[in-house]
Amino acid sequence: MMKHIIVVMILVASLAFTFQSVSAADVTGAVDLNSAYVWRGMTLNDGWVAQPSIDIAKGGFDLNVWGNFDMDDYDDRLDSGEFSEVDLTASYGFTVGMVDLRVGYIEYLFPTTDAGGAPGTRELFANAGMDLAAGFAVSLDVYRDIDELKEWYTSLGLTYSYAVSEKLSLGAGASMAWAGDDYCSDGSAGFYDYNLSISAGYVITPEWSVSAFIKYTDALDSDNLADKDDGGSLDVKTYGGVGVTYTF
User: Structure pTM?
Assistant: First the structure.
C-alpha cells in the first residue's frame, strides 16, 4: 500500500510541474507541522504530525494530494514515522451570483501498519461560501460518505480576515457541525462538534508564505461526541501548528 501511495504522490508532483509549464495551472505545495491531528472533533493523534500536500488548479478544476505523517504513536495505536493517511481529492468550483460553490470527491487511503490500519473510504462533498462585509464570510460544507460509513457530516462556519499589511494577515473562525447516526457515540444523529480558531499568514516572497494557527474544538453534545475517558474519540481540545507554502 505504501509503495502505491508514494507512486501516486510522485505522479501528482510530476503532473504539477507539467501543468505548470504547459498549461499555466496554479500549482501549490505545502507542509504543515501540527501539535495534534484532530478531524471533525475526533483525535486521530495527540502528538506531532507533519501534513504535506500538493494542489493543482486550473479553470475551476482542482486536484489535491494530502498526507498525514505521524511523528508520535498515540498510545501505541499508530506507528510513528509512517504515513497513516493519504487523501486524494478532485473538485470543481464555480460561482452563482454572490455564492462560491465547489463540488468534489475524496478518496481516503489508510495504509496498514503494524499498529493496525483502517479500510479506505470515499466521500462526495459540496461547499458553498459567501463574503459578507467588513472581512466576514460564511460557509456551508456538506459531506456524504458513500463507502464504509454511508453517513452525512455538515458544518456551518463563520470566518473573519483582516489585512494588517500587504504581507501580514490575521484571521479568526468559528464552526459547528451536525453528524449522522454512525458518527455519534449514542448512535443517534445530532449536533456534533464546534471549533474556534485564530490564525496568521505572512507572505515572504510571491512564491513563499508561512502561516500559524491555534484551534479549540469540543462537543456540542457529549452524547454524540464523547470524551476519550468515556470511550469516545474526543481527546485533544486545544492544538496548533505552523505551515510553509510554495507557489510554483
Answer: 0.89
